[in-house]
Structure to design on (336 residues):
């Protein structure tokens, strides 16, 4: 899903009536949930600060796929989300289902209906609100058979999660990029080919990488990884673990290899040896790899770009960390 302030290229202005005073009043209401308390923990200034800078703050929406076939459940779920958004002076909802659906099943049609009913309700009840939906990096997923064109038509835009790309396909058992260049852009080509307007697509890129423990680290820097049988892939990200960019930046300089660039995948990686003597290979995106993919946005007329997720960067006072963080944010901004 997309994180706060994670979408650029068009101005996302909160409705004009949402003043600082209105934010203050909203906190007097007694109806709270975990998200409400999370925002309250950081103070009222968080919501108002976001609005004052033209950012949207939206709910995250998820529901068991088996339940959404029930019209009564859908109506209740939508009403609850709209009420919560109103109470918290929020600007919409990002529907992040990420569950398997069989083609032309009852759930297949119900999911499209859920998105349409949610969008209709939010747009009617909250002026200027936004309803978005998260999709996999490619519409050719065998397990997530969604009515992509119908969903795109029903909501404001699709946030394409162009990461974890090795989790949904058979993969060779070697460490590799989280979001390889060619595969990533092919995913967008495929969405456009099935009839989705590019202006309904937001490119999502990762601010994290994957750390793989090597069974063998070859002289040509190939890192073989364990086969982890699953219904998604023979091996891939299940063989590794996620590492945020801020940790990667601290680790790469002390690695045994330093940063390397893979010309085929257009991504960076490095090798290190842990305290137990095992070799690891870490693959990650940085401003160089992100900028190459971001160029596709203006060339093909996509709506914008976003990331998962903002907390992967270092916001401390360290001078080098500050520079690295600024570079990652800067690469998301459109070059006009």
């Amino acid at each position: 899903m997309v994180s706060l302030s994670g979408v650029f290229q068009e101005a996302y202005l909160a409705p004009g009536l949402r003043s600082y005073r209105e934010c203050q009043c909203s906190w007097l209401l007694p109806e709270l949930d975990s998200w409400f308390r999370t925002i309250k923990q950081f103070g009222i200034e968080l919501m108002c600060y976001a609005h004052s800078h033209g950012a949207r703050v939206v709910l995250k929406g998820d529901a068991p796929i088996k339940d959404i076939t029930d019209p009564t459940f859908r109506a209740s779920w939508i009403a609850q989300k709209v009420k919560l958004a109103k109470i918290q002076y929020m600007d919409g909802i990002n529907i992040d289902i990420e569950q398997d659906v069989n083609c032309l099943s009852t759930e297949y049609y119900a999911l499209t209906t859920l998105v349409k009913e949610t969008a209709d309700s939010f747009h009617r009840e909250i002026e200027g609100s936004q309803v978005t939906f998260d999709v996999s990096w490619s519409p050719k997923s065998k397990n997530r058979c969604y009515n992509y064109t119908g969903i795109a038509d029903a909501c404001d835009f699709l946030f394409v999660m162009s990461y974890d790309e090795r989790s949904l396909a058979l993969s060779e058992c070697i460490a590799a990029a989280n979001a390889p260049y060619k595969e990533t852009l092919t995913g967008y080509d495929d969405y456009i080919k099935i009839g989705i307007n590019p202006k309904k697509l937001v490119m999502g890129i990762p601010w994290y990488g994957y750390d793989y423990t090597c069974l063998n680290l070859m002289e040509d820097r190939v890192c073989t990884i364990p086969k982890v049988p699953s219904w998604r892939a023979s091996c891939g990200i299940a063989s590794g673990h996620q590492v945020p960019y801020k940790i990667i930046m601290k680790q790469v300089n002390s690695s045994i290899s330093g940063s390397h660039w893979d010309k085929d995948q257009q991504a960076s990686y490095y090798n290190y040896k842990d305290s137990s003597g095992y070799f690891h290979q870490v693959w990650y995106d940085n401003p160089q790899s992100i900028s190459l993919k971001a160029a596709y946005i203006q060339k093909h007329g996509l709506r914008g770009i976003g990331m998962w997720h903002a907390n992967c960067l270092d916001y401390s006072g360290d001078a080098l960390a500050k520079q690295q963080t600024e570079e990652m944010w800067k690469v998301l901004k459109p070059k006009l």
Remarks:
- The two ends are 26 Å apart (CA to CA).
- Residues 1-37 have pLDDT under 50 and may be disordered.
- The first strand starts at residue 59 and ends at 61.
- The CA atoms of residues 72 and 215 lie 52 Å apart.
